[in-house]
Design brief:
Elements lengths: L10 H34 L13 H4 L12 H14 L25 H14 L7 H13 L5 H11 L10 H8 L4 H15 L5 H6 L7 H18 L3 H13 L3 H10 L5 H15 L2 H5 L6 H13 L7 H13 L3 H11 L10 H8 L33 H4 L8
Helix pairs in contact: 3-4, 4-5, 5-6, 6-7, 6-8, 7-8, 8-10, 10-11, 11-12, 12-13, 15-16, 16-17
Length: 407
Amino acid sequence: MAVQPAPTMSPVNYRTALVLTALAQAWGAAWLLLAAAATPAQASVRALPTPGDSDIERSTVNAASPRAQGPDNPLQEQMLQKLRSAAQREAAPSRKPRTGPGAAPRTSADLAPADAAWLLGLLSLHGLAMPADPPQAQHWFERAQMLGHPLAPAGLAWCQISGCVSAPNPSTAMHWIALVSRTDPGLAKYLEWHAAKALAPLADPTAASARPDAAPSQGVAAGQHLQKLLADAARAGNAQAGNELGLEWLAKGELDKALGQFQSVAERSEAAAANAGLLASRIRSGPTGRTRPARYSPADWFAQAQRYHQGDGVPANYTEAVRLYQIAASGGDPQARKMLELIFSRPLQGGAIDIAWMQQLANIPMGSSITPGAPKSFAPHGWQRDPSPLYALVPLQWRTPEALPRR
């Protein structure tokens, strides 16, 4: 039988076979390596430990989720946005302000641009529905004046008296006060009283005690003029002036006059109504309450003077601060006497208050006996006055937070 010769493989097929053989060997080696690695990996697996028996802190479970910062009253913020939009509109005739307890409040969109700008100035000045921002208040008062609001000059006058943007400059307020007198004579007189207080020379108590037989000083004459201005403002119908006049009688110990004054304006001034109630209760308490109307020590009056000197919780009022320092000093408070000596050591020409010097003195720590971190005494806190002559012009719905709608 003839032997068949073996078939021959082409060079191409031979190379292909070699490649396939090499791939098969590589796959086999890879599978061997995976099998070897799997065994220790399985051995390293451990069961999870049993949870501990420690108590869960409920405060962490029920804690409120963190929230982004935002307005507490979104609807109020919407009202402010509408006010700002209204104030920026083209000028339109300003409507006569609605006054009186029975007047229905107008919505933000209902206000004319001048009225909206005026209201924004009042809110910015007093920190109502927004943080207090005196420079922004002056901006809105200027906008209201440009749009022709009849009371805008009152805002500009107060900004000059109190210093909304720069240092107080009461002398420049007189131009604006003259414009206010056309619309509200009582408010104009009350603003004039504030300006005159800041400009008037003060009676130096040390000089008066040194020369008891001396003629009335320039400061005493100025005090008489101030008293007349305040009385004229009260007679012109300004309730805040009436309340302030009652406080003046109270400081002099004229309790019956003070009570009558408070009661005469109580229906138009919440501060006066509160003062009338407080004074009446103290008079009813007996002779002790009548002989010492406020029942506060000289140190309490000094603390109150510091409030007005430093602008702590109230607008800074240097003339009022000096008056309260004098009450404290007359009662024997040594810190008040020291402060008055410093104040009168650098008066301006004519005896007026040096504003820059008063600002420096406001930063001088007085009363080292106060424990750091302890709450300051805001006495005498019983007697009330509005934070500014314009406060009564703020609509009631903005002065009373609960009267504003909430979502």
